[in-house]
Specification:
The complex is a heterodimer of chains A (363) and B (412). Chain A has helices at residues 71-78, 106-113, 133-143, 149-162, 179-191, 209-226, 237-243, 261-266, 271-278, 285-288, 321-325, and strands at 20-35, 40-56, 60-64, 86-92, 98-100, 116-119, 197-201, 229-233, 246-251, 254-260, 331-332, 340-341. Chain A is an alpha/beta fold and 363 residues long. Chain A has an eight-stranded mixed sheet, with helices on both faces. Chain A has a four-stranded antiparallel sheet with strand order 2-1-4-5. The termini of chain A are close together. Helices cover 59% and strands 13% of the residues of chain B. Chain B has helices at 3-8, 13-33, 44-49, 51-54, 58-68, 70-87, 89-92, 197-233, 235-250, 253-262, 270-301, 304-311, 316-352, 364-369, 374-379, 385-407, and strands spanning 113-118, 121-135, 142-165, 169-178. Chain B folds into three domains: 3-55, no CATH class; 74-86 and 202-407, MetI-like (MetI-like fold, Orthogonal Bundle); 102-195, no CATH class. Chain B has a four-stranded antiparallel sheet. Chain B is built from 16 helices and four strands. By secondary structure, chain B is an alpha+beta fold. Classes of the chains: A alpha/beta (363), B alpha+beta (412). At the A-B interface, helix 3, helix 5 and helix 6 of A face helix 2, helix 3, helix 12 and helix 13 of B.
Chain lengths: 363, 412
């Protein structure tokens, strides 16, 4: 994997000519907690709470964070599996028109479903065991009347070849494939309608490491071939470092830091990111003794009952009085434009990152 | 590779793992060098499974699994035979249901003898022996003795008394019947009026086997509709439907059926009674099915592949019909098969109690009514034979349904 060229196109930040594909503004997704026979609303889980970020054309935007931080929910809001509670998801379509996906009805969404596609985490539950490969991949072409039955067959064959499967597997059922092969089918399904934006929701987490590498390389190759934009939801930082151009770090439903991969990895501006980086396993034993590990005390905050002020303050070793009372907003840094973080002391703190290659070496 | 395929080819499982590993490594290096982005991975899993198995759909897999269930196969054959009998009742039964003979009340079962020995020699000629009856002058009890002199020849595929099949196709062909029409033949004995029990059981099969089927289809329709609504929409609708189901299930079934059946006026023609009874049986029958369907909808709604179908742009109807229903259709079939015997039993009990079907309609339950009288049973125990048919049919259905249920999810 390290032999693969990881130098992606220059980061889009600061460049005038790079257009956003997606603008997420103040996205909120609250799940009600109901109780009793009458489903009385007794509270809500703030799975995604006021998240904003942009995704630019041709880039890979990584969303990282620990389990339950809302990264999958964010992805599912963008693909509109879920209807967000509030906020805007502005998609720039091929002609450059801006559409707010968050209020569209099911039927209004249909044309955009072809352009924004999703790759699922679990290659077993995401493929209907009762349909052969040609129907699984071709369904989007069929329901949107993009191609006739004969054309669908040809296109599915081509897609299978592109994802590295034999075109003869057309009539096979998912049970005849291994996990990695199934995920390739999932990738082919996502690409069938020639999308512009692909949300990969933990697309490689369920695969074993050698297959992960194959799949990531495949995704990168396909990105170049089709000029795709990815939103890559993951918890594995080594994978994220390998594939992403820019990264957003989430903690308890909030985006705490966004920036280019290099900035976030090497010069984190939020204590949570620092802790996350410190947790990246170092494959070289000689590196282990260097640098102390940042251990986070306590538990992840409960999104139905978050702490006051900054959600991270009970676990933060730099926390001061202001952190307990006032919630920080996501602010751009003066020194490094395009690098945002939500910390009161972002400018003052000297936080430790990871040096390039240290994380990806484990992949 | 799925567990299934490994089970199927236990010997090949080990080499397969090795192949997969090596092919994985090879593909990785290929990715690094191949500029086209076309990764060629040898499919280890597919190679092991073989083409034939890999492209089998769910029904083919189910059939493979079902065939291994011997008892279910037997159940299936028995059920099929019963439905064939129901379909061709007119041909199989030697006599129409109403044919009676006052000379032979409670005549005992006769045996078909194939070989006829006469003075001229021995020949193959199926026949039954005529019965001589003697009435005890004191008790008026009739005793029958077969008379070897009275030979009643039986002919196969002969033309007996004319009938109208299903009420409209005229015919007179019978599988077997006495050569001369009007001569008595009681393979399973006769009832109080000297009617042939065998013929009546055959005709009863038609009513009893179809009442279960019709009733279950009505239940199925209601169950899938209401269960589907309940499961798909959830929320308040689901709450209301589920409470109704709980209420219906809390009513004791036999008294409810009896009450409803008693409410059918005596003047209603028998055919309408038949349909009303199926409706009565379905009133409670749909609840179980609705629960199963609702549960399936709930579990499938959040499955990734259903979400994927929605993202593909499928309409609600297409998502349900193409992506969800096939996943639980097999379960529904199994549950339905297991529900039919309950219907048959219910019809039999109602008719036995005199609240279901009434003569002249013939069903197993109606026939068993005659066995209510202990004296009749002690004199003519063959009147209990319809009960044996009920048992065989119900067991057949249960074994069949059991096998279907086991085979229903070939991916489990």
């Amino acid at each position: 994997m390290s032999s693969v060229d990881t130098q992606n196109t220059a980061t889009p930040i600061g460049k005038e000519d790079v257009k956003p594909v997606l603008e997420v503004k103040n996205l909120k997704m609250y799940f009600p907690i109901t109780k009793g026979l009458l489903r009385r609303r007794v509270g809500e889980v703030k799975a995604v709470d006021d998240v904003s970020f942009n995704v630019y054309e041709g880039e890979v935007f990584g969303v990282v964070g620990e389990s339950g931080c809302g990264k999958t929910t964010t992805g599912r809001c963008i693909t509109r599996v879920l209807k967000p509670t509030a906020g805007e998801i502005i998609y720039h379509d091929k002609r450059g028109d801006r559409v707010n996906l968050s209020d569209l009805s099911r039927s209004e969404l249909r044309p955009y479903r072809r352009e924004i596609r999703m790759i699922f985490q679990d290659p077993f539950s995401s493929l209907n065991p009762r349909l052969p490969v040609v129907d699984l991949i071709g369904e989007v072409l069929k329901v949107n009347r993009i191609a006739t039955d004969a054309e669908i067959k040809e296109r599915v064959k081509k897609l299978l070849r592109q994802v590295g499967l034999r075109p003869e597997y057309l009539e096979r059922y998912p049970h005849a494939f291994s996990g990695g092969e199934r995920q390739r089918i999932g990738v082919a399904r996502a690409l069938a309608s020639e999308p512009r934006l692909v949300v990969a929701d933990e697309a490689v987490s369920a695969l074993d490491v050698s297959i992960q590498a194959q799949t990531i390389n495949l995704l990168q190759d396909l990105q170049e071939e089709f000029n795709l934009t990815y939103i890559f939801v993951a918890h594995d930082l080594s994978v994220v470092e390998h594939i992403c151009d820019r990264i957003g770090v989430m903690y308890v439903g909030k985006m705490v830091e966004t920036g280019t991969k290099e900035e976030v990895f090497e010069r984190p501006k939020h204590p949570y990111t620092e802790a996350l980086m410190a947790a990246v396993p170092k494959p070289d034993p000689r590196l282990r003794s260097r640098g102390q590990r940042v251990r986070l005390p306590g538990e992840v905050a409960d999104p139905s009952n978050p702490p006051s002020g900054c959600y991270f303050h009970p676990r933060c070793r730099y926390a001061q009085e202001i952190c307990r009372t006032k919630a920080p907003s996501l602010q751009e840094h003066e020194v490094t434009p395009g690098h945002y973080s939500a910390c009161h002391f972002a400018e003052e703190l000297e936080l430790k990152g990871v040096r390039p290659g240290e994380a990806s070496a484990s992949a | 590779m799925s567990d299934k395929s490994e089970k199927k080819t236990p010997l090949a499982a080990d080499p397969a793992a090795v192949t997969e590993e090596t092919s994985g490594a090879r593909a990785e290096s290929a990715v690094g060098t191949d500029g086209n982005g076309n990764v060629q991975v040898e499919s280890a899993a597919a190679a092991v499974i073989g083409d034939e198995y890999a492209s089998l759909g769910q029904w083919a897999l189910m059939w493979k699994k079902f065939r291994k269930h011997k008892l279910a196969m037997v159940g299936g054959v028995v059920t099929a035979i019963f439905y064939l009998i129901a379909l061709f009742a007119e041909i199989i039964a030697p006599f129409p249901t109403a044919t009676y003979n006052r000379e032979y009340p409670y005549a005992p079962p006769q045996r078909i003898r194939l070989i006829l020995r006469t003075d001229e020699g021995t020949s193959f000629a199926p026949h039954v022996l005529g019965l001589d009856s003697v009435v005890d002058p004191r008790s008026f009890q009739r005793t029958y003795t077969p008379n070897p002199e009275k030979v009643i020849p039986v002919r196969f595929f002969s033309h007996g008394q004319p009938y109208k099949m299903f009420g409209f196709i005229p015919g007179s062909l019978r599988l077997f019947a006495p050569a001369e029409s009007g001569q008595p033949m009681y393979l399973l004995g006769a009832d109080r009026l000297g009617r042939d029990l065998f013929s009546r059981i055959i005709y009863g099969t038609r009513v009893s086997m179809t009442i279960g089927l019709v009733g279950v289809f009505l239940s199925l329709f209601l169950g899938v509709l209401l269960g589907g609504i309940s499961g798909f929409f959830g929320g308040a609708v689901d709450n209301i439907i589920q409470r109704i189901i709980e209420f219906l299930q809390s009513i004791p079934s036999i008294p409810l059926w009896m009450g409803l059946a008693a409410a059918i006026p005596q003047t209603v023609p028998p055919l309408q009674v038949y349909f009303l009874i199926t409706v009565i049986l379905s009133i409670l029958g749909w609840t179980g099915l609705a629960r199963v369907v609702r549960g399936k909808f709930f579990s499938l709604k959040t499955e990734d592949f259903v979400v994927a179908a929605e993202l593909d742009g499928c309409s609600n109807l297409r998502t349900i019909m193409r992506h969800m229903v096939p996943s639980f259709m097999s379960h529904i079939i199994a549950v339905t098969t297991l529900a039919i015997p309950t219907m048959i039993i219910a019809e039999t009990s109602l008719s036995f109690l005199g609240l279901g079907l009434r003569p002249p309609v013939v069903s197993w339950g109606v026939l068993l009514q005659q066995a209510q009288n202990i004296r009749a049973v002690s004199m003519a125990p063959w009147l209990l034979l319809p009960g044996i048919f009920v048992i065989i049919a119900v067991l057949g259905f249960n074994f069949l349904g059991d096998g279907l249920r086991d085979a229903a999810d070939p991916y489990a």
